[in-house]
């Protein structure tokens, strides 16, 4: 580790980052650029950034020797997370002196020391920034502390503008902790604006005091759902202020999650009808033909019709299972408890179960053996089928899809790589959202319900593993699954 950060490089390249932001770049691509710049200036082996939501976090950007952690979920209630969230804002931690899966995995990759700081916006923690070092002798200096805190301020500023951030979900970075309350006069001028109102709307007291209320008022005694300009929804109520003749109490709270769930339900119904229509139509058509013209059809046409009905019925059964799993908030069944198993053997069995067309495209490059993985062996066929199907859908005909596997000190990994259209950096996390599609409308080039990757992530994380996507060098996409090593 250098005795001092490389300020000259940081200042010069930071100006480039600002120029890229000013030119319209945002979200994960800029996060990655900023982390690589910070890694170089801090002299670290790798960097990670964990984005926090209301219930948990996830590492959404990683560089250098910490790239293996990309996509890993973060438990905000773990002892390590609690220490980071409640202790000093910036801390130096020896990873081999603390317990937990993440420290154990990090030390397994040769990382010894972690310099970590919280990313804070509006007094609330929205994420954490980690810089990793291999050296045992040197420790980060106060100058390293200052520089990583400056980078964290940059990240908070990016989140404040909500340009492609947060990565997961829409609207504010944090949910309101209580109802907002405002008192307005007969001119709709705000006379009181409580702290919760600031948290709900992002508008400070100075912004709104003596100004017109920034959203409509419902009829007294009734409620109104109102959508803000940033896409969030408020439920607003109004009533007279007791003891006055010209003041109204307005209360409001963020109901974006409720609207999002309702939208998911409507989308689920729409996708169900859309995705079921094709196989049902084909089955009905062939069944009607057989029923009406059985004696007229030659034997080979009967066999072809029954084969198609069987194939479409199988597709229909799988689709229904996926739709029901996605509709269930508890996710797919947990299956068997995690146990050691031979991943290479399981992948070869799963490869043989793939449809013929997929097997012909798949180029299998598996080692003779790997250390045991810990997880649910019965899910590997489902996981591989979903990943290969996804790669096939977005790849040009005739290009190969590669299946590879390896291990490191703490995890066993397999990857499905294609030479398809690729994935944009800002979409590598959104692709795991339920029902999310890169395209919308009736003229989408790539059919599907947007459930495969969502289900893969749910299944893998039940086994204490994680899955991530990244653009492939030279074009295409790499889907990477990591399971604990036995």
Percent of residues in helices comes to 25-40%
Strand order of the largest sheet: 3-2-1-6-5-4
**What's the CATH topology name of the largest domain?**
Beta-Lactamase
- Alpha-carbon Rg, integer: 27 Å
CATH 4th-level superfamily of the largest domain: GAF domain
What is the level 1 CATH name of the largest domain?
A: Alpha Beta
Can you tell me the number of structural domains?
A: 4
Please state roughly what percent of the residues sit in beta strands, choosing from under 5%, 5-15%, 15-25%, 25-35%, 35-45% or over 45%.
Answer: 15-25%
Number of strands: 18
CATH architecture of the largest domain: 2-Layer Sandwich
- What integer is the average pLDDT? 81
Main beta sheet:
6 strands, antiparallel
GO cellular component, one term: plasma membrane
Main location: membrane
Protein name: Sensor-like histidine kinase SenX3
Catalytic activity: ATP + protein L-histidine = ADP + protein N-phospho-L-histidine
């Amino acid at each position: 580790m250098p005795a001092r950060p490389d300020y000259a490089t940081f200042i010069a390249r930071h100006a480039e980052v600002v120029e890229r932001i000013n030119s319209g770049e945002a979200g994960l691509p800029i996060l990655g650029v900023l982390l690589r710049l910070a890694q170089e200036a801090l002299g670290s082996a790798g960097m990670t950034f964990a984005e926090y939501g209301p219930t948990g976090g996830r590492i959404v950007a990683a560089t250098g020797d910490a790239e293996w952690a990309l996509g890993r979920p973060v438990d905000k209630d773990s002892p390590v997370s609690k220490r980071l969230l409640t202790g000093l804002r910036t801390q130096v931690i020896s990873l081999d002196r603390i317990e937990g899966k993440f420290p154990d995995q990090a030390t397994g990759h040769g990382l010894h020391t972690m310099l970590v700081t919280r990313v804070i916006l509006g007094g609330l923690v929205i994420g954490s920034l980690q810089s990793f070092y291999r050296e045992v002798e040197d420790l980060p200096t106060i100058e390293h502390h200052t520089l990583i805190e400056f980078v964290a301020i940059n990240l908070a500023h990016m989140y404040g503008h909500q340009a492609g951030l947060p990565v997961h979900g829409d609207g504010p970075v944090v949910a309101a902790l209580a109802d907002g309350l405002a008192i307005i006069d007969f001119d709709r001028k705000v006379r009181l604006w409580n702290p919760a109102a600031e948290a709900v709307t992002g508008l400070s007291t100075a912004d709104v005091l003596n100004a017109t209320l920034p959203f409509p008022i419902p009829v007294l005694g009734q409620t109104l759902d109102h959508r803000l300009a940033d896409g969030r929804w408020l439920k607003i109520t109004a009533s007279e202020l007791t003891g006055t003749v010209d003041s109204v109490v307005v209360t409001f709270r963020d109901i974006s999650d409720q609207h999002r769930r309702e939208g998911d339900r409507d989308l689920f119904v729409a996708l169900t009808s859309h995705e079921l229509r094709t196989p049902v139509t084909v089955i009905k058509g062939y069944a009607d033909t057989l029923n009406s013209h059985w004696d007229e059809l030659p034997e080979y046409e009967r066999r072809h019709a029954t084969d198609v009905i069987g194939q479409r019925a199988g597709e229909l059964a799988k689709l229904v299972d996926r739709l029901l799993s996605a509709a269930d908030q508890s996710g797919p069944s947990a299956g068997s408890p995690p146990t050691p198993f031979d991943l290479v053997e399981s992948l070869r069995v799963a490869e043989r179960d793939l449809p013929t067309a997929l097997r012909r495209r798949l180029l299998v490059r598996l080692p003779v053996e790997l250390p045991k993985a810990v997880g649910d062996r019965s899910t590997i066929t489902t996981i591989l089928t979903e990943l290969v199907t996804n790669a096939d859908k977005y790849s040009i005909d005739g290009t190969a899809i590669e299946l590879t596997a390896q291990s490191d000190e703490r995890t066993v990994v397999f990857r499905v790589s294609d030479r398809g259209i690729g994935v944009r950096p800002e979409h590598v996390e959104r692709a795991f959202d339920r029902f999310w599609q890169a395209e919308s409308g009736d003229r989408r080039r790539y059919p599907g319900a947007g459930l495969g990757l969502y289900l893969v992530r749910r299944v893998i994380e039940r086994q204490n593993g994680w899955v991530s996507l990244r653009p492939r060098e030279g074009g295409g996409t790499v889907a990477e699954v990591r399971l604990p090593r036995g």
